[in-house]
Amino acid sequence: MIFCYLIVTFAVTAVVIQVKPWYTPRYFIPLGGIVIRNSMNAIAIALERLFSELKKKRSEVELYLCLGATYRETTVSIMKNSIKAGMIPSINAMMTVGMVFIPGMMAGQILAGVDPMISIKYQIVIMLMLVGSTTVSSILTVYTIRKLCFTPAHQLKL
User: Fold this and answer.
1) Chain-centre distance of CA 135, in angstroms?
2) Within a 13 Å sphere around the CA of 24, how many CA atoms are in the beta-carbon half?
3) Which PANTHER family match (predicted)?
């Protein structure tokens, strides 16, 4: 999660917003907080789905392993479902921004007198940042934890 936090927050502050220096606390801390919050939610949901599906499909997983499949081959569908589940909240939030609700950052900028078009552009950047961070953190975490669920001899530990 820290890797994802640093990469996404650096990309947004240095490349998109072009803050000099990129680690200016005024920008880095709020954006980093948003990334961490959403990444933690995505990781929790993705890991919950991974563990529940491994437990639910334990006999199927062990059957594939007994027939000579590797743990990677055995868990392809479980991995897809886990990553999708971790991304659901971010995708749902993207679908409703601007139509159903106005997010806090955008509303704060409008109330402060900033041009609404500028606040909309910032909100688009924030939403894309959230989807990017949840995607990267879900993928990295689920792949790492999946490897820990199996022994070097491709036996399920759960």
Assistant:
1) 4
2) 11
3) PROTEIN ALUMINUM SENSITIVE 3 (PTHR30028:SF0), UPF0014 INNER MEMBRANE PROTEIN YBBM-RELATED (PTHR30028)
Q: Report yes or no: 12 and 31 within 8 Å, Cβ to Cβ.
A: yes
Q: Residue 58 pLDDT more than 90?
A: yes
Q: Is the pLDDT of residue 73 over 90?
A: yes
The whole-model pTM stands at 0.82
Determine the average pLDDT of the residues in 10-23: 82
Domain boundaries, the chain: 2-14+21-148
27 closest CA partner among 9, 4, 7, 15: 9
User: Does the pLDDT value for residue 106 go beyond 80?
Assistant: no
Whether 146 contacts 75, CB under 8 Å: yes
DSSP state of 150: B
Residue the block writes with tokens 């552009």:
121
